[in-house]
Structures are given as structure tokens and as C-alpha cells.
Amino acid sequence: MSSSNLLIVEDEVLVAMDIKSRLTKMGYTVVDVASRGQEAVEKALDLRPDLILMDINLKDDMDGVDTAIHIREQYDVPIIFCTAYSNEDTLERAKVSEPYGYVLKPFDNRELEINIEIALYKHKVERDLSDTRTRLDATLAHVSDGIIAADPDGVIHLINPMAEQITGWRRQDLQHVTLDRIMTLEPFEAGGIQLRPHMLAGAQFSNGRYVRQYLRRPGGELKPIELCVNRIENHRSELIVITFRDISQQLGYEEQIRHNAFFDGLTGLPNRALFFDRLENALNHRSRSHDAPFAVAFLDLDKFGVVNEGLGHDSGDRVIDEVARRLERSLRPDDTLSRFSGDIFAILLDPVDSVRGAITAVSRMQKAIEQPFDLGDVTINLTASTGIVLYQPDYTCAEDMIRDADTALHRAKSEVRGSCAVFDAAMYESALKFIDCRRGIQTGLDNDEFEVHYQPIVDADTEELVSMEALVRWKHPERGYVSPVEFIPVAEETGLILPLGEWVLATVCEQIEYWQRRGLDAPRVAVNLSARQFEGEVPKLVANLLERTGISPESLTLEITEGIAMKNVERNIRMLNELRFLGLSISIDDFGTGYSSLAYLKRFPLNTLKIDRSFIKDITTNDEDREITRAIIAMGQNLQLKVLAEGVETDDQITLLRESGCDLIQGYYYSKPLGAAAMTCYLQQRLRAMTRRADMSLAPAV
Ligand code: C2E
Ligand code: MG
Ligand code: MG
What we know:
With 702 residues, the protein is of the alpha/beta class. Strand 19 and strand 20 (465-476) form a beta hairpin. Helix 2 packs parallel to helix 3 (64-74).
């Protein structure tokens, strides 16, 4: 039984009382009775009943129909009309107020109750429906996708604000417009769909899959969209629902990502990945046709690090960008120029008629780079080295050609600045050797194949042993002893010099400790340091080793080359001072082969100057070498340095060096480098000889 609140509008007092009593008996609550129209409006708005029973004929200006219209304008309530008579005209007017029921007086209770219950139920269903629609509208208004629903004839039933925005059509303009006009689609990619009224029931559905298409907007503009067309069916109707979104921005991002993946951010040139791709294409094409050959050139700016370090990375970037522009201008449109890495550019010269053609193109690029670079405050001059490889039918992959262009570039870089080298078979051999050597050093380190040999250094006047140089040897399992001249450059280039150099230092320290423990009075040992090692914190490394082995720092000399002295001057002076402070000695090795002047070396805390073997070799026959050697000795001594001559092999050399005031001698004349065991014997003999001499001088004269 319902307990709904009812309002009765009836001007006949007795009738009103009768209806009220009947309704109350039925279990309804009659909240009030109104007898006039205006009064009914006020009470309805005030009491908010669940239903109104409205007499049509009220003794007033406003009859029941007008009153109902007024109330429903302001308050959504079901109204049932009751009247004793009805003419057509009144019924027509009553319809306008959307009545929920109509009972004719006199009515029986059952009829009244059924009318009331139906009206209440219908009103509830309508309200629920309206709530659902409101929620749906709100949802559709806020989804970020455009949604359009149409029937199979293309008549639009629903379009949300986002769909209006994307299509450029407004809801109010859609009365006579069908779906195919709003959604005029053009192909974007394969597998697109078309919407035509007669096809709506056909196969043009994406079945949950989104496809990309262009949408032609009313102004003719094409907008890229992603859309999904679905058919929704129930037993009464069929609906086409299109969900779509504007992907202009997304395409922009995708394009950006694609661009970043294949182009260099600084110069805008193709990057390494795109270059590989183009080269692969060229190779594939040649494998199918016999077109003219092509070439790959690598171009590397010489000493570009100096620009970056000296002028800062911003200036470095400006130079790289300017280089890119100059190279672009010096190439033909068909060639591909790419920034391969840092200051290396790779160029696909396609086609070229011959090696000569490639060299001409490359020379043009080198000339373009040799023009001064104006950086505002300063003007700089650069050169570039290049390596070229020409296509051969046995090249099947891009990696191989790139590897060979790189090998040629390396060769060019090892020559004078601004060189150009063309890859050939000999280079391939030496590249293979390099790779072999690198692998060998690595395994050699793992398998303990390295040894340290020691070459005596003697006092020029007394010929007494005063120190020795530690020289690393590689005892190759197949090749026997391999010269450091062969493997040290490879170790330096690959960075393997770091573990190898550290191993040498540690081995020397342990050897000294062994000799000291045996009381062998070992002299100082000089250890060679390479430039790469000097990039690390040498003082710390040495201090650790000294601490570990317990030997005194006075037992060690470090040999560095002029090259080390010339790079990172301030830092290196600091490190050398720290090493001197620890108690180590420092020698400059191979002096005379670099470009440093003695005046420049004055800033370095040095002890010894080693004159390179190349001067000593012809010292007795070549006047110039002799004069240079004499000058070096004189200047070295002026700077309070000990001067050592390397590679001394003959008596005549020794005589001459002695006359010139040379302090120390190292060379085959006295001894070749000796293995650790041989050197131990040598030291033992020396000790015995010294002891004998001491004994003899102590023995009483007879
Ligand atoms: P270096 O430091 O100038 O060493 C002197 C080189 O001259 C040694 O060659 C030595 O055997 C050789 N030599 C000495 N006296 C004579 C002589 O009278 N006649 C001739 N013809 N040669 C003589 P080695 O041992 O082949 O070493 C070559 C170079 O390898 C060294 O030149 C040094 O630059 C480098 N090296 C050797 N060991 C090491 C090391 O442990 N670390 C580093 N970084 N480099 C090393
Ligand atoms: Mg040396
Ligand atoms: Mg030397």
C-alpha cells in the first residue's frame, strides 16, 4: 500500500471531502485541499505533493487545465484530471499539460486507485529516465572523444560537444544533415573506411579497432582523426556509433619522435641511424643493379677537443653547426651528409665514378673547413682528416663499409693534419692485426703473459750501475717475445694500457721489495707511464702501491714523454709536484722527438732528461745530431737536470758523450734489458764485487 502525499484541487466542498475520505481509506495521505487555481499553485509549490488530483472546472479565472500548466512549469509532479463532463475542446487543452490520467466523475475507488498508481509509476519511470539522460549528457559533454550516434539512414541522434568541435558542425545545424556529410573521410593510411548512407548497414565497421583517416571539415580543411565505427543493434533499432579523436597533436609528437630518432639535434642533419639506413639501401640497390659505384667518406675535425676545451662547448657547438652548413654547401644534392658522432661526419657519395671522384669531393669539403671560423671574439682555423672507402661488390652490409671508412680515417689521422686516406687491402690487414692485438693483450693480461725486463743505467764516468729502466715484454704463447713497440700503441688506443700499466708498476714495486728483502741494494727503477695513464690520479695509485709493498718512494722514477707534459699543463704540473713530494724522481723520456722547448719544460719538476736514441745513433757520424746532443746536454745541465743518453751501443759514442758532459748512459753497450731472474743474478754479482772491493780496501797492506 502506497503512502504517497496527494493534493486535491476541487471547488465543490462536499466532493472534495468525499474524495479525501476515500483516498485516506485507500492509504494515501492527503496533504491538503485547494478550491481555487491560484491557491492550488501555491500549495503545490509549498507542500510538494507526489501527485495532484485536479478538477478541470474550477469557479475561477483559472480552470484546472491552466492551473496544471502553471504548476508543471515550476514543479515536476504527476497530475490526474477529474471532471464530471468533458468537451473536446477541454480535452485538447488538457493534453497540453501532459496529464498522467483522466478520470470521469463519478468514479469508483478501484478506478481512482489504478489511475493514481499508474500515474505515480509512470512519473517515477520518467524521472529515472530523465536522470539517466542528464547523467549521460554530462558524461558525453566531458569525454575527450567525439561521439556521434546515427540511425542506418544517417540521421543524427546524438552528437557530443567534442564531436561538434572536431567536425566543425553545430548540433542545431544538424536537422537535415546526414552522417556521411558530417563525417566526410579521406584516406590517411591503408585500411581506412568510408561512410555512405547506403553502406551504413554494410561492412564499413571497424569493430572496435581505431583507424586513422582525414576528416574534411566544412571549410575544406583536413583534420587527422582516429575513429572507431560500431553498430549497436537491439530488437527494435539499429544505431551507428562513431567514436573519434583529433590526432593532430599526437601526429606532431610522433613526427618529433621520428625526427629525433633519425636526425641530429644540433645540426639537423641525418644521424648515425639514418646514415646506416641510407647506406643499407645503397648496398641493396647495388646488389640488384650494376649502377655506378658509390663511396663512404668519414670526416673528422683535427684537434677539435682544443676548441671545446679552450672556448667552451657553446662555441664548439657553433663550430660544428657551421661545419655542417659548409659541408652541405660543398656536396651534391644526392649525397647524404650525416653527423655520425661528436665531430665526425659521414658522407655517402652516391654515385661516384672512381676513387678520384671521391677524393675530389672530399677535398672540396676539406677546403670548405679550412676557411676561418668567425666566432665573434675570436677567429679559428681548422682542418679535417678524411677516410674514404669505395663500394666493392663483396660489401654486403653497412657495418663493413663503415668499419673500413673508419680504418681509413684512422690512417689519415695518423698522418699530418688535413690528410685524406683511401681504404685498401693493406689497411684491412693492419686493422685485423689491431683487433687481434687488442684481443691478445686482454687474454695476455688474464693469462699472465706479460713480464718486466730491466735495463741497467750506468754513471758515464764511473760506469757504476745507478738505476735501471723497467720495460714490459709480452711473452706470446705462439709468437714468443713481442716488442712493446708493437703492442703499447694498441694498448694506448684501446685503454688497455691502464690495467697493463698498473700491472707493470705493481710488478716493479714487488720486485724492488724482493731485492731489498734479499739485501741486494737495488738501485732506482724507472717505469714508463703513458699519456692515458696520466689522465688518472697517478699520485694516489703510486701511494697505494708504495704502502702495499712497503718500498721507499726513492726507489722509483717515473718516465713521461714530452707529449704528456704538453697536455693539461696545470693539472700535470700539480700531479708531478705531488709525486716529487712523495719522493719519486721524474724523467723526460725520448727528449728531442717532441716539440717542447727546454724553456717550457722549466716549469716541470724534473730530475732527468733522456736524449732519444735517434740522436745518439748517428752521433759519431752526423754532425748535426752531435751538435744537437751537445746542446741538449749543456742546456739540461744549466737547468740542474741529469742528462741520460739512450741506446748507446759503441765505445766511440761513449767517449763522445763523456766529453760532452753526459751524466748517465743506457744502452746495449753495457747491457740489454734483462729478465727479473737475470737482473737478480746481476745484482748478486755486483754485491759480491762490491763486498770484495770493500774487503780488499780493509785488508792490511803487505
Ligand atoms: P723507451 O722508454 O724509450 O725505452 C727504451 C727502448 O730502447 C727499449 O725498447 C729498449 O730496449 C731500447 N734500447 C735500449 N738500449 C738500446 C740500444 O742500445 N739499442 C737499441 N737499438 N735499443 C735500445 P723496448 O723495450 O722495445 O721499448 C720500447 C718502448 O716501449 C719504450 O721506449 C717505451 O716507450 C715503451 N714501453 C716499454 N715498456 C713500457 C711500459 O711498461 N709502459 C709504457 N707506457 N711504455 C713502455
Ligand atoms: Mg723509457
Ligand atoms: Mg726512451
